[in-house]
Write a structure and sequence with these properties.
CATH class of the domain at 122-216: Alpha Beta
Largest sheet: 6 strands, antiparallel
Radius of gyration: 40 Å
Structural class: alpha+beta
Shape: flat
Strand content: 5-15%
Helix content: 55-70%
Mean pLDDT: 84
Number of strands: 14
CATH topology of the domain at 122-216: Alpha-Beta Plaits
Length: 752
């Protein structure tokens, strides 16, 4: 509930020809997380993606499916599909995908043609007033034609007066066309410049610009009709095949991942080794299944840090020291396993017996073992139990050693993947945890706490049962849409429902609904339909005396009006601060436990416990001053607690945070003010909440009340004024609802 799933380290080694079978089994188990291999050594690297007809077919189909998926809004509204059903469906799905791609190509090609045709049509339409055939405007022989846009076409004759007899001039619709011999082109360009002419590009072709423009318009209409038909066909295809498309995309992506998975594992000429993680609860099952096909499978529970091993390099208790030394020897001597095996296989039989292995270890200055010890060493490598070592067996043993994490290469810093282990109620709030990043392995999962506190804070800010009902209605309406079948959407809608319920509860406590106050102090007075209910709650539901005295909340009862001074505003402020202090206290407590688990009691106290002391001492010091029990700077037991915490913080900064003593002494008091700011930042609950109340009040005072008066007065003017006020009331209410959904969400999330 409050912790992530325990993980165990998985190591698998086998002959390289079994890589596809084992990787597919890992996929079928659906609980194996493979760590990418990155420690490249001589003779060992990563594998290559599988190159087969099946792999290529899967890859090609995946590309097509992704192309269609990006072009349509396909949703799976009928629930999940089993892997077996998805596999059968995919076999005959390519033809349907190709048909959808055909519709998409028609739409895209037509859109491209429309874009090009519109540019030409606009240009031809602009040239139409000249009524000059396109072939004449292009010029020919010694004759040049200049066409341009001018603002003062009426002055064209005046501008060309000196050469009027040498040119042919035509102006219409803000355009001017001038034909001249080449020898007069410079003079024509000067005259056009004087008129402020902008040259117009003449499109290629023949005939009247107006006729060609109209023809292009017809072509554009035909293309638009073609797009409409293709889009309708594509929409119909999506309705028929949307579920299959979503399932095929996920299935093919998983299959493609299997074919590319060899790039994640360590591979040599004869063997491969896989390093990964599995949930501890499924470790036995995974080990049993993989042991059926793999030569070597080990699963070790992850205990954090260095796996509780010594600081020296450790490859596991089952690996003889001589094999570790042999692995290092091959690395230092720049030999591959294949070269070493051929060198020690004295009789070229393809098998190494005890004598040959003993001689090889002796010549390499690794060990000089007696025959009975050599028998144990050979049996550690001999996988088929024939008493001898073949090349794949030796390769598997050494590859497994090199792939096993060791302290000297920094691989101990790799931590397990994070898997939540929440129930169905808490699971939707994992979405909010993912927004800020999953917790570190071995620390607390905050999903349960966020499930309790986020709706609480949100409802305390918005606090209107009417708006809460709107949120609930919105969540159920959105839940009826096709996209709501998506698991991510389901989580979001569940959170929205929690927010709505919290708003309804707080709205009942505040007696607020759609901006109206529903007890006798509100707009309706004793005519409120809830008058009797709130009259009873006012006299019977209040904070118990002992708690009220401790928390200084003696005036708190139900309902209390958070935006009215003397009727609940002070209590609203105090509740915001109390909630902030409690929220931060819980956070530091979880931090204390996390640091204690990772680094021990001393580090936990100085890093987090010091903040708990400062928070408790400072909060109580301020609370006693506000309550009138003590002066702010009067010495109390809380003062001592505050100073003990501050001294502890300085020590923690100096030693554990590596600030040094000077840095700790300087930064300690400064950091304390940051805690004060964080606590006071919870006043935004009060600030945003009161602002929302006042916005809703504006809709009533400017819209609802004048509307009632206007309709009561009667007459045409009264009806018109009443309708205007009704529209104003609804508009401000919609604004308040929209702001009420957005603003409290942002602030509640920010506080978390």
């Amino acid at each position: 509930m409050f912790a992530t799933t325990d993980m165990s380290r998985l190591t698998v080694a086998a002959p390289v020809e079994k890589i596809e079978e084992i990787l597919r089994l890992c996929t079928d188990l659906s609980c194996v997380h493979i760590e990418e291999y990155g420690r490249f050594e001589d003779g060992i690297g990563v594998g290559s993606s599988m190159d087969s007809d099946e792999a290529n077919a899967i890859s090609n189909l995946l590309v097509k499916v992704q192309a269609v998926s990006s072009a349509v809004q396909a949703v799976n509204s009928d629930g999940p599909m089993s892997r077996k059903d998805a596999s059968k469906m995919v076999d005959g799905f390519e033809e349907k995908v190709t048909a959808a791609l055909g519709y998409i190509d028609i739409i895209r090609d037509s859109e491209a043609k429309i874009s090009s045709s519109k540019e030409q049509q606009q240009l031809l339409h602009r040239l139409a007033p000249l009524d000059i055939p396109l072939e004449l405007m292009a010029g020919y022989g010694d004759l040049e034609v200049f066409v341009g846009e001018v603002r003062r076409s009426s002055k064209a004759n005046e501008a060309f007066a000196d050469i009027r007899d040498e040119i042919e001039l035509h102006a219409a619709g803000g355009l001017i066309a001038v034909a001249c011999r080449s020898k007069h082109s410079a003079e024509v360009q000067i005259c056009l410049a004087e008129l402020g002419s902008k040259p117009v590009q003449i499109p290629a072709g023949e005939g009247s610009p107006a006729e060609k423009s109209n023809k292009l318009l017809e072509e554009i209409k035909q293309l638009e009709s073609k797009i409409t038909d293709a889009q309708s066909a594509l929409d119909a295809w999506t309705i028929r095949n949307g579920r299959n498309l979503v399932a095929a995309k996920e299935y093919l992506a998983r299959e493609a991942a299997v074919f590319t998975a060899p790039t994640l594992v360590a591979v040599s000429n004869q063997a491969f080794a896989l390093d990964g993680w599995v949930p501890t609860s499924q470790a036995s099952m995974v080990e049993a299944e993989l042991s059926k096909v793999a030569s070597h499978v080990t699963v070790e529970a992850y205990e954090g840090g260095h796996h509780h091993h010594d600081d020296h390099e450790d490859h596991g208790p089952s690996v003889p020291e001589e094999l570790l030394m042999l692995s290092n020897y091959l690395t230092k001597s720049d030999q591959t396993v294949f070269q070493f095996f051929n060198a020690i296989d004295l009789d070229d039989s393809g098998l190494i017996d005890c004598y040959e292995f003993q001689t090889a270890l002796k010549n390499a200055n690794i060990a000089n073992l007696p025959p009975w010890e050599m028998g144990k060493l050979v049996s550690a490598v001999d996988l088929d139990g024939d008493g001898k070592i073949n090349l794949p067996e030796l390769d598997i043993a050494l590859t497994r050693i090199r792939n096993t994490p060791s302290h000297d290469d920094g691989s101990h810093d790799v931590e397990p993947p994070i898997q939540f282990s929440n129930g169905s109620i808490t699971e939707p709030f994992e979405l909010m945890v993912d927004l800020v990043g999953r917790p570190k392995y071995g620390t607390f999962d905050p999903s349960m706490l966020i499930m309790m506190t986020f709706p609480l804070v949100y409802g305390m800010i918005l606090g209107d049962w009417g708006y809460g009902l709107v949120l609930l209605a919105l969540s159920y309406w959105l839940g009826s849409k096709a996209f709501a079948a998506d698991p991510l959407a389901q989580k979001g809608l569940t959170i929205l429902r929690w927010m709505g319920v919290s708003c309804v509860v707080w709205g009942i406590i505040f007696a607020e609904g759609f901006g109206f106050v529903w007890d006798e102090t509100g707009q309706m007075g004793k005519d409120s339909p809830f008058y009797a209910f709130y009259d009873w709650t006012y006299h019977n539901i209040h904070v118990p005396g002992a708690i009220a005295d401790v928390l200084n909340l003696g005036g708190l009862h139900m309902p209390f009006h958070r935006a009215s001074a003397g009727h609940g505003l002070q209590e609203y402020v105090i509740l915001s601060i109390y909630l902030g202090a409690a929220h931060i206290f819980v956070g530091y407590t979880l931090g204390l436990l996390n640091v204690f688990k990772a680094h021990g009691a001393a580090a936990a106290y100085f890093e987090k416990g010091s903040w708990l002391l400062i928070l408790t001492g400072g909060f109580m010091q301020g609370r006693n001053m506000i309550s009138g029990y003590n002066d702010l700077f009067e010495f109390q037991i809380w003062t001592a607690l505050l100073f003990i915490g501050l001294i502890s913080l300085i020590i923690g900064l100096a030693i554990y945070e590596k600030f040094g003593w000077a840095g700790g002494i300087i930064m300690g008091p400064i950091e304390t003010f940051g805690l004060l700011a964080n606590t006071l930042s919870y006043l935004r609950i009060m600030g945003v909440g009161v602002a929302g109340v006042k916005i809703a009040e504006v809709s009533i005072t400017m819209g609802f009340e004048p509307m009632v008066d206007a309709f009561s007065s009667g007459g045409l003017s009264g009806i018109l004024v009443g309708l205007f006020c009704l529209i104003l009331f609804l508009f401000i209410q919609l604004f308040a609802i929209a702001l009420g959904i957005l603003s409290p969400t942002i602030h509640a999330a920010r506080l978390h």
